[in-house]
Amino acid sequence: MDILQAIGNTSMVRLRKVVPPNCADIFVKLEGENPSGSVKDRMARALISRAEADGRLKPGDTVVEYTGGSTGASLALVCAAKGYGLRIVSSDAFSREKLDQMAALGAELTLVPSQGGLTTRKLILDMIETARGLSREPHTYWTDQLNNRDSLAGYYPLGEEIWRQTNGAIDAFVHCVGTAASSRGVATVLKRYNPAIRVVVVEPAESSVLLGGRAGPHKIEGVGIGYAPPLWEPALVDDILAVSTEDAKAMARRIAREEALFAGTSSGANVVAAIRVAERLGPGAKVVTLMVDSGLKYLSTDVHGRGS
């Protein structure tokens, strides 16, 4: 068994303390158990293996990507395991731990300055253009995560795991939208089994573009790019909920202290939204969401740092 075979088959646990009374049960998949500490390992393995299979990525090539950090760490893991070089475009908007993890796994970093450490539409577009420039160099493969449909296949097994671990007794799946690949991949599988399962996606309240609002700066890392991502498929989505950065941070701290689940800001947003869905559905129903990554990626931030 190699390290890439350790991706997936993560645990699922029920939230016990942060869920109010008279709610549906809420279960969370512990995606921080993946080798790099996030759900993105699933898509990184699919991006690289599929590009190898059809010849887009050849031995000796260098992989290029723009990322807030978790995708970069996952690509760095896969590229290190398979022997490819990796050039990552990221930013000071994202946690120091994520940048350090990418570098530790062998990625060469190019950092694009942000507006006061915030995620904005302009930052994402600047990162994409920087990556586009790097991708023009010879012997380079640009994974281009926002447009690459290969990532969807990386999340189909996650949908299968959720169906299997709930024995098919699932009423709703709740998850934040970044590229939209993970929510779409899971929704595709779950709705194939049971079209009545509700898929609820989450976005930052400060940049609630999927609900028709204006793009704005926020601090929920890895989600809310400021425009509808190319992989967004509204036909698979039953509802969209907006969660503020402060509510997401506060819930990330609560689930650490009350549930002993150590995860990041988008996981906090997932739980805030899952509780709203669980309150609507009531006792006897079952809601599933994701603990997207490990809280170890946020120790230098005001989410889990000593000042939080």
Would you list the SSEs in sequence order as H and E? EEHEHEHEHEHEHEEHHE
Helical fraction equals: 25-40%
Which architecture of the largest domain would the CATH scheme give at its second level? 3-Layer(aba) Sandwich
Strand-residue proportion: 15-25%
Class from helix and strand fractions: alpha/beta
**Sheet with the most strands: spatial strand order:** 1-2-10-7-8-9
- Number of beta strands: 10
The shape is globular
- The CA-CA distance between the termini, in Å, is 40 Å
Question: Into how many domains do the coordinates divide?
Answer: 2
Largest sheet: 6 strands, mixed
How are the secondary structure elements laid out?
Blueprint: E1 12-14, E2 25-30, H1 40-53, E3 62-66, H2 70-82, E4 85-91, H3 96-104, E5 108-112, H4 121-135, E6 140-142, H5 150-165, E7 172-176, H6 181-193, E8 198-204, E9 239-243, H7 245-259, H8 265-281, E10 286-291
Parallel strand pairs: 2-10, 3-4, 3-6, 4-5, 7-8, 7-10, 8-9
Antiparallel strand pairs: 1-2
Q: What descriptors fit this protein?
A:
single chain; 308 residues; alpha/beta; Rossmann fold; 2 domains; six-stranded mixed sheet; four-stranded parallel sheet; 8 helices; 36% helix; globular
What does this entry show, briefly?
The protein is an alpha/beta fold and 308 residues long.
What can you see in these coordinates?
With 308 residues, this protein is of the alpha/beta class. The chain folds into two domains: 3-33 and 154-298, Rossmann fold (3-Layer(aba) Sandwich), CATH 3.40.50.1100; 40-142, Rossmann fold (3-Layer(aba) Sandwich), CATH 3.40.50.1100. 36% of the residues lie in helices and 17% in strands. A six-stranded mixed sheet has the order 1-2-10-7-8-9. Helix 3 links the parallel strand 4 (85-91) and strand 5 (108-112). Helix 1 (40-53) crosses helix 2. The longest helix has 17 residues, at 265-281. The chain is globular, with a radius of gyration of 18 Å. The protein starts with 11 loop residues before the first strand and ends in a 17-residue tail after the last strand. The mean pLDDT is 96.
